[in-house]
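so i finally got all the pieces together for this one. its two components total, 1099 residues if u count the protein bits. some of the lines might not be protein, just check the labels. i wanna see the whole assembly predicted at once instead of chain by chain like last time, that was a mess tbh
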Amino acid sequence: MTIRVLGYVMARNEWPLLGLAITHGFQCGLDHIVVVDHASTDETHSELKHLQARWPGRLTVIRLELDQFLQEQTTRVVMSFVGANEYDWVYVFDADEFALTSGYVTLVDLLMTVTSEVDALRYEVLPWVSPHDMNDLDLTQYSRIKERAIPCVFLDQPATILSEQIQNGHINFFDLPFLSKVIVRGKYAHKLSSGAHQISDAPSNIIEQKLQTESLRIGHLCLLSQRRIKLKSAQGKFLIDANFPPSHGWQCQMIYNLDVAGQLEFFWRNHSIQESANQNNTSFASTIVTDDALYIALEEAVKVFMANDKLTHSPAHNDYQSTNQFKLDNLVKLFNERQLVSTQYKNQVNVLNTELELVSAQYKNQVDVLQSVLRSNSWRLTKPIRYLLTKARLLRSNQVRGIT
Amino acid sequence: MSSVAILSFNQSPHPVGVLNSAELSYPAVHGRQAGIVKLEFLHQGINYLAEPSVLDGYLFGVLQFVMGGAKKLQINGPISAQAIRNANLLAEAWHTWLPEAYTPVEIIAEKVLDQSALAWQDVKPNRDRAVAAFSGGLDSTFTALRHTRHLLGNASYNIEDLVLVHGFDVSLQKQADFEELRRRIEPFVDDLGVNLRIVKTNIKDAIAHNWEHVFAAQLSCILHQFSPDFSHGLIASGAILTEPDIRWGSTPQLDYLLSGGDFNIVHDGAAFSRTEKAALIAKHHIARRSVKVCWQGEHEGRNCGRCEKCIRTRLNFLVAGVSNPECFDSPFDVEMIDQIQVNNQPQLKLLKVIVEEGKRANPDANWLVKLQRRVETLNAQLTSSAITQISPLSATTSHTPLHKHHSVSAFELKLKIQREAIAHFIGQSQPLWLLSEMPGNIGDHLIWVGTERLLTLSGLSYERVPVHSLKEETQARPGTLIIPGSGALVSLWHEWLPDLIIHSSSLFERVVILPSQFDADVPVVQNALQRHNVYPFARDVDSYKKIKKFGKAALAIDPALWAMDFTPAQPTAQHNNDTTHCKTLLALRMDQGSLLADHGFAPAAGNNDISLTCGNLDEFIHAIRSANIIITDRLHVMVAAVMLGKQIEFVDPYNHKISRYIEFNFGKGFSDQLSHKTIEWLLVNQYIKPLEVIK
């Protein structure tokens, strides 16, 4: 039996990491990958064309020019657009995420073993830590990433509190566990929440299976290099300037605050590994363990990816973007507006439901009162009198009408 | 300039009744210039009212007013010895709470009558007659109903008359509104078979400098005027015994002090919530119609139905099973809940009580979820707008705070967020078992009280498990064992707790150690923290960094900080070096946690290590509250002192314990109260002496 698995990734200025992630996705056995290039200004736009030539017919590139970051809306529109529901499974990933399976089992091999009643698979996202002098633009350096952080914080606190604790140096960013994510059946792809953490509006009977980290885990390069942290800082500035709440993209906002306070180097020192130190690194402020799994996966992806440079760009694979890009922008906008309107309607429906409940309760009260009267002793005791009165009224009525 | 206030009494006939009047000559008080005021009490609809044998009531009526600046209160007339003694106690209480507003006065009278002298004058036809103040509200209706219906059997007061005052809830200018109120309550009064007495007075307008402080005293002033015919005057309680309302004009604790030698004031009904009172009233069809609770509406004689108090009372009735009591002109609408606005924590607490009562009475009620959401919203609004709260440890509170430190409100918000997060985590695996009867000094009691309050505030129910019984326990239990924060997991002290944690981890699904201090180098502590189901919270960053290698750790605020609400910092001019004019508490450790002995020093004479010497937490708190400046190396003495708004000079004991605690728990907040000192500083200021000198 074969299954078809669709990959989906949305990115902005993530090259070359995005190329590695896509390459790794195909190595995992993904049948097709859809990339949404969200108005990147680096090499992403041009380099994706090269990658399309390397994976002919299997890589769809969609350019999105919207200023807003409407991740969930875009995902839902694109999933409908590309017919995601025709795939057996849909795997949504970020450019800094790499699916790691055990042994020689690929992600698709793993998905083939899942029984048909399962609708979603939940997996853990684990952070790897980079060397302090990591240059993410140099693909040969990815083989240096061999340390995994061990999150320890079990208390779920608001992002604002966590951000404050990290900025004060009380806790390390790597102490915090990342939210787990889901791989879903194709029919649920258009219902994925932002970040693929869950299926929104999921029916109550949905079956979710949790995967052990031995079977599948995601290697996450959330703080890959100083250069990329600077990019996060810029994103944080954008969010703050646009008046997003502190919880929205809190990590980027926190990094921007650290940047403004001149603390970014200090932060990076506490979130990267100083190779000059001994093996038992004492400068690193979080708990780490050596784990080669990501390094092995990346090494394979780098080999294949670097081979892409030898291929030439084929314009034939880019027709999708040129003909459809303008539609996508409009669709995402429309979808966003429709969601807003839908929320308003939902609120109205909720209000009406509340009113209905109230009216029902009042009606029930009235029925209860009536029933209590009918069951009361006084009602029962006066039954003969009421019977006699009824008879008397009937008699009188008959008399009036001359009936005997 | 004279600082004597003089009170004299007069009674005269009036076209519509009898007029009792008291002339008060007063010096400058409460920011008012010296002057003379005539307090009038017109008893309407009667031809005769016996003159009181003593002027006790008038004394209570003016006491708090003259305490605002006078040194003596001279009564031109007889007064009972009991009234003077009670007035003095009352004055001491108000002075303790608000020393800047109230100063005790010496009370002198033309004649002071003791009990035997009063007995000679006693001509009451019946010694067991009671008169009750009656506003038509929920509280006084409840009191009137339960005593006139003899619901307390022999314990019922024999209420024969109810007194309705014009000039308190309904202002003197609103005669039509008062008449409307009178017509409204008359059927109820008739049904009870008692007399309605109407007293019109200007005392509130004339000398009520702070109505929330004086309303019960002024009410007692009126009730005392019936002392020739009655032995008891009832004031309906607006408080709940479980939530003592300190610095409020009427409390179950102090109202009895408004009694005199021949007339007793009774604070009635404090054991009942407003919902419980509504439940009784709901059974009385006339009372249901007559109750009037509103004071914000346009018409003072009826309920507007839409103000906070009206909606709250509607909810009281709703919980009691009556959705639309006839006292409201319009039906209840669930949308009203979203219109509730509160100004202070006491109001919010009354709403929270309704939520709890609603959950018990009808957890599926459609309005309950809405009210819960509204309470959460109001709670957040109040917390962020820094309204003071009532303290469960009877620390201090004010209904009209003069100031509130900004850092306190920000800190309260932080406390709230942390409490919700911790409660969410703890609540995931129920039932909850709280470790109790732990060994510890009095400072640890603060943590235990704070832990229980944290759980209660979060709506989590739990059962206490004493340490000694848990040690013997062998049977597995479902749910979570909660271990209050502790310092018993460090190198100096780890004799019993780590072993108990190891033992408990095999009995319970989870063991949660609330914010504590840790030394992870101690093998038995390591062993305890490595258990798969043990979840340790650290209360300082150093402890957190030490334990996170075990894979599970969280930083959270010390539970002791929930033990009571924070009092704004008290400004002390002598802060820092010159402490000679302030009362100072020297509370240095006398145990092995002290660093003094290592440096060759010991605390000087006068040191009181209150964590060891106090018999209970109340004594501990009292010792701190009585001082202006606290000098200590005890962590939880420092914590309690911060919460009580004191100035603290602290010295770190072992392991930088206090500094580390402050860094995480307080951050930059409370820096105006906290001053880090050294052992040299203690020596220079003679708070410690070299050991050989002691010898």
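The longest helix of chain A spans residues 319-375.
The interface with chain B takes residues 150, 152-158, 161, 165, 168-171, 175, 285-287, 354, 357-358, 361-362, 365 of chain A (CB under 8 Å).
anyway lmk what u think
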